[in-house]
Structure formats: structure tokens, C-alpha cells
Amino acid sequence: MNGFALFAHQFRYDQKAFWRNPASVFFTVMFPVVLLLIFATVFGDQTVDVRGGIKTTAYYVPAIITLAVISATMQSLAMSLVIAREDGRLKRGRGTPMPAWVFIAGRVGNSAVVALLMLALLALIGRVLYGVAIPWDQMPQIVVTLLIGAAAFCCLGIALTAAIPSQDAAAPIVNALLLPLYFLSGVFIPDDQLPSGVIHFADIFPIRHFFEAFFDVYDPGSGGASLQWGNLAVVAIWGVAGLLLAIRFFRWTPRGG
Amino acid sequence: MADPVISIRGLRKSYGEFEAVRGIDLEVQAGEVFAFLGPNGAGKTTTVEILEGYRKRSGGEVSVLGEDPQHGDRAWRERIGIVLQSCRLDPYLTVRESLGLYAGYYRAPRPVDEVVELVGLGGKADARARSLSGGQQRRLDVGMALIGDPELLFLDEPTTGFDPSARRQAWETIAGLRDLGKTVFLTTHYMDEAQRLADRVTIISRGKVVASGTPDDLGHRESLPTTISYRLSGEEVSVETTTPVTDLHELTGRAVEQGLELEGLEVTRPNLEDVYLSLTAEGEEE
Fold first, then answer.
1. Could A88 and B104 be called an inter-chain contact, meaning their C-beta atoms sit closer than 8 Å?
2. Is residue B267 within 8 angstroms of chain A, CB to CB?
């Protein structure tokens, strides 16, 4: 079999396992939807003071899509790889003729597909429930931005597994990293309400830059913004750093014995 | 004789100061079921993981199917099947799917349904792994190792923690592998398992081979003391001897002379469990 056929084979089974796992479906698919509904319901009538004032819902649709992309990639990948590693499945897979990269590629493919699906789902909910227009003519920029972010956060998720010692530690460690950054980066709290010091701090990390890059191409008010190469470069640098760390520190065998 | 499937000479493995394997020699021939027996911590898993290519050795020569496992390539991996000591399979895939997933890893896999039957999971083909019992999951694990139709199969403690009926079913599955002509390298710490399944047994303790042979002549049972026991005027007497015939002759001769009846007279040869315990205990005294 050629490389693509091997990948397609692994991907097919990873998809099955993903959609049958209630925890992965809830946290990756349902949770962002619930967040969007909550934020839109609570703050729906207000405006956010960015670009001369936009509706809160127009702010939260791209914000929650960025969260969903990070959740489908970094979070979901780190969790599922740690679980597979500690169960001994990665080690067992390495005992077969399958090249090692296939086991990672199948899951990365799964993450990318789920991220694109979340874009469609959240954009649709935004349109149907809150009248947030879907920026069709911006779609190439949106998809490119999303895929660059997805690739970078996949690398970071794989790298993060090296810092997670057990299955029980996976969710706390991932959430302890991501949740504060969602708040500080303007994903949960519109950035007109955040002190500038907080924004400067958040600017160190990739979530803020991914959110800015995505918001600018998604928000119709931005008037057909082109790709935000500056923000995307920071995201990509984090991604490459993650990739190098992953190559150096990723392990296939269980830590717990 | 054809080249051995596995050949080990002077194998050593250290973890820092600790020497887990201290000079092991052994050979496994094609088509035999070989049991590598020893207590926990004897170095069984370290050795088998060196043979499987998971660990690097510190010293010695190792050849598995004519190759050094440290440099085993894809073609070599096509020819071996591995069941790890502990591995949880994907809980959300069914028996048939788990086998289908692994079938895709090999160039010429056995048909999935054939393997389902082979490991006795015919009634569970569409059950998800999470709904299987421990013994059934283990048999699925064996099935996943068999799906590539390997020549050599490694089974690392395949029945540890099983209840008696699950063990017996696992044994039947393993015994069936011999009929397929597979070479099986089995590690276990159960004497009865080795006795039941293996053509040849090597016992290790503290990283060294302490005995090797067929289950029947293992450990030179002849040289171990025989026990003669009887009751005399209500008192239990038990004597260990290496010359049972002479001693028994003398004992019964005297009893007849004096008109005594030796109640419950019994002569017991050591069983394999005793051999195993005495051999591995010697290792611990070092």
C-alpha cells in the first residue's frame, strides 16, 4: 500500500472510534456549541466596541470557532494520544509493519476534519439563530487560516503529551493551559473589556494570534480582510516549536510501567 | 537441522546499576511452543522485549528469524506477531473492526472472519471491545497478533490474572496455534501453563537460566529427593531420600520383622511445581 492508502485506512478507523466515544463527541463537538448558545443568550443584545461596534453574536461566532478548532486539534489529540499511549496501543501498533507516522497522521486527519466540521456547524448556528452572515466570499482565507491554525495546534497537542504522565492527568493539564488563555486572549471576554497588559501577555501565546487572524477574515465588518500573515507567522512558529519538541520528546510506550 | 527461529547467546541487559538479564543462552526451533518461565522480576519481559525489537540489549548476540531485532525492518515485522503483557484495545471498535484495522497493516493478512473463529470469538464478532470480558479481550489481542499470518508469535504472560475458565479457553487458543505450524515464544510465571502448552521450557531466575528441557525431564527430577511418608503408632513420619529403593527396602524389611504396619505408606516424587520452586529459590539465595 502507498502512504496515502495507509493513512486513509488508519483515518477511517480513527473516525469510527472518535464518533463512538461520548467524551470526545461531548467535549469537542457539543461543548463549543453550548458555549456559543450561552454567550449569545447572555450577551446577545449588547455590542462589542471593536471596529466601531459590532453585535456580540458577530463577535462570538468567530471566537467560538477558534476555540472549537483548538479543541478539535490540540486538546483532542493530546487526550487521545495519551490514552492510547498509556493503554499500550501505540506500543502495540509499533510492533506491526505499519510505519510509525501513520498512527499520528490518522489522528491528525481526524482533527482536521472535525475542525472543518465545527466551522460549518458553528457558522450555520450563528446564521440561523443569530443572523450572523456567513462570509462566503471570504471562504478561501477562512479555510487557509483555519488549516494553518489546525496544523500548529496539532503539533502543540502532540508535543504536550510528553508533559502528561497519565490518563488521569490529561484533562486537568490541557484545561489548565487552555482555559486561562481563552479568557486572556479575548475568546470568552471581548477584548475591548480586557486591560491592555492582559492583551500584551496573551500576545506571547498562539491562541490570541490565531483568534485575531481568524476574526479578521471571518468578520464581515472587516470588509474583506486578506490573510493576516503577521498573526499566522506567530501561530506557525509555535507550531514548528511544537513539532520539534514532539519529535524530540514524544514517547510510544506507557509511562506508568 | 534448519536454522533456529530464535537464537540468543550471552544476552545481557542493564538498567543503570541493575542487571535485569545476566547472560542468557537459548534457541527456539521452528514450529515449537517454547515457554520462558520464571517468577515476576526474573527478566522475562525484558528478554522478550529485546526479541521483539522494543529494547536495546547491553551485550550478547540475538537473532530472530535471521535478523537482529534492533534493526528489524518492515519485512521482518510482517513475519512476527506480538501480544504485549498489558494492552487495552480500542474500547469503541468491535472485534471485527479491531482485526480489520490490524489486517490493513499487513501485506497478506488472514481473512478477518477466519481469525475471529480461530480465537473463539465467533459469537462476539460485532461486539465492541469494551463489552468483552478480560479473557475475551486477551483472545482478541491474540487474534490481532495472528492477523498478519506471522511465522513467530510472542505471548507475554497471556493468562496472568485470569480465572480458571478463562485460562483454559486461552490455553485452547494457544494450543491451536501449534496446529497452524506457528512458532510460539510464551512467557509465563505459571508452571502448569508451561507444562500444559510447551514443547520445551527454559526457567529463568534473577536474569539467568536455571533449567532447560522438556516439561517431563525438566530440572533433572531424578536427582531431587523423593519423600517417603507413613504413620507409626499414630505419629506422622516423613523422610526425604535420594536413594528411595534402598531406604524403602530397609524400612519395610524392618517393619515386617517387627510385625508393624506402616499406615498410609506413601512414596512421592517431586512434581514440577516443586522443581520450579526449588530452582527459582536457589536463584534468590545468591
1. no
2. no
Residues 97-156 of A with CB under 8 A from B: 97-99
B104 and A253 in contact by Cβ < 8 A? Answer: no
Q: What is the pLDDT of residue B285?
A: 44
Chain B residues touching residue A93 (CB < 8 angstroms): 105
Least confident of A47-51, A141-145, A183-187, A245-249: A47-51
Partner-chain residue, chosen from B84, B92, B100, that has the shortest CB–CB distance to A92: B84
Q: Which of B48, B77, B97, B105 best probes binding to A when mutated, by most A CB atoms within 10 angstroms?
A: B105
Domain with residue B102: its CATH number is 3.40.50.300
Kindly state whether residues B101 and B191 are assigned to the same domain: yes
What residues of chain B, 70 to 99, have a C-beta less than 8 Å from chain A? 74-75, 77-78, 80, 82, 84, 86-90, 92-93, 97
Q: Look at B90 and A17 and tell me if their CB atoms are within 8 Å.
A: yes
In a domain, residue A168? The reply is yes
For residue A127, give its domain range.
Answer: 3-249
Q: Which domain holds residue B71?
A: 6-213
Q: Are B190 and B268 in contact (CB under 8 A)?
A: no
Q: B151 — contact with chain A (CB < 8 Å)?
A: no
- The count of domains in chain A is 1
Asked whether residue A192 is domain-assigned, the answer is: yes
Specify the residue for cell string 482536521: A112
What type of residue sits at position B108? A
* B73 and B139 share one domain: yes
Q: Which of B141, B174, B222, B169 is nearest to B35 (CA)?
A: B174
What is this model's ipTM?
Answer: 0.90
Average pLDDT over residues B246-258: 89
Q: Answer yes or no: do B230 and B147 share one domain.
A: no
Query: How far, in Å, are A74, A77, A87, A206, B163 from residue A28 at the CA level?
Result: 11, 11, 21, 19, 39
Lowest mean pLDDT among A42-46, A228-232, B82-86, B139-143: A42-46
Using an 8 Å Cβ cutoff, are A207 and A84 in contact?
no
Size of interface A-B (CB pairs under 8 A): 65
The reply to whether A254 falls in a domain is no
Domain for residue B59, yes or no? yes
What residues in A contact B52, CB-CB < 8 Å?
95
Q: What is the pLDDT of residues A56-106, one digit of tens each?
A: 899 999 999 999 999 999 999 999 999 999 999 999 999 999 999 999 999
